[in-house]
Input
Amino acid sequence: MFTNDKLTELNDTISRVTKLTDSFAQFPGVIKQTASTTSGGNAQSNTPLRATENSQGITAANLQISTLLNVITAISEAIFVINSAGVIEMINPLGAKLFGAPAEMLIGQTWTDYLQSPFKDEYQSLFTLWNSASNEANKVTQFNHGPKEIVINRADSTLLEADLSLSCLPSMQIGSEPLFIGIMHNLTTHKAEYNKLRHLAHTDKLTGLANRHAFDDALQTNWNDSINHDQPLCLIIIDVDFFKMFNDQYGHVNGDKCLQKIAQVLTEVLPSNNAMAARFGGEEFVVILPNSNPLIAEYIARQIQQRVNQLTFTDIGLPAQTKISVSQGIACERSGQYRTPTALICAADTALYRAKSSGRNRINMSS
Ligand SMILES: Nc1nc2c(ncn2[C@@H]2O[C@H](COP(=O)(O)OP(=O)(O)OP(=O)(O)O)[C@@H](O)[C@H]2O)c(=O)[nH]1
Output
């Protein structure tokens, strides 16, 4: 992260190196010379960023700029410098790599052209706002934005996720026209890892269905939607019948495969992308049916019952006559009869209990 402290540290380094070094390579011309960079006459011994046409100042300033460029080029951060019009004045190799184009091509271009929507509009508005700030003296130092996640629309049209900190270089050190320094970090690897971990945190390892954690979140979200939009919401709890016996007879490994087959059935019968099947725990599953009604819920439960009854296990080496069934309890929230999502679960659970006690392989609707 390129903080103000780091910026100060960087300027200190530049001043020190400048004092100690007698000769540097000539100004490398990487900074696009603009009117502002060659006008004025206010060179100071500790103003490293802007060349001025003071008789003694040009060489010193160029040396300082050269030093700054060397530091910025060598630093293991992606850095670019833009002016108040958002035009790139300087970019280091790592920065150019993130934008996906050579520095020579990027310099002189508007940096927001490389931002994916909505970030492009957001940063353009930010600069417009900043430029229209009334207090000229304060606005430069007030501008410090990020770190914030952005998506770069790279030169080859691929997208790259990054985080960006944008700071205005302190006005006392850069002359009249402000420059902004952007520091970026490539988030591609981090994001891929995050998405993988997020998927693992929400998925039941055995069945690949949503896990209990994801179910709880989804139920709360669907519950809120149902209340806010006055739409019904149905829940089916599904419990495998005599599963202990299945495990005892065929072993836990085959028991696991049986649960996977049932999970597959649940995935197949979901009526829409909004509906969700999850593993509730052990040999219990649950289906959330948003914007649904008891008739639809019962139809889905019937589909589950039939398909589970039709499952075969010869592919995992079990006898052809091996059969399995599930008991199901349904509860539907329609007009405020349940006060909380937990109350809805309890109602479906009670209905499930009745389905079990009335013989199993049954569907019971909460009244
Ligand atoms: N193979 C396997 N078995 C599991 C898993 N989770 C729970 N079980 C088993 O599921 C069985 C549940 O047994 P019970 O609660 O007695 O229920 P049941 O035998 O299905 O009987 P009813 O529900 O009354 O029809 C237990 O034997 C658990 O070990 C799992 O992930 N894999």
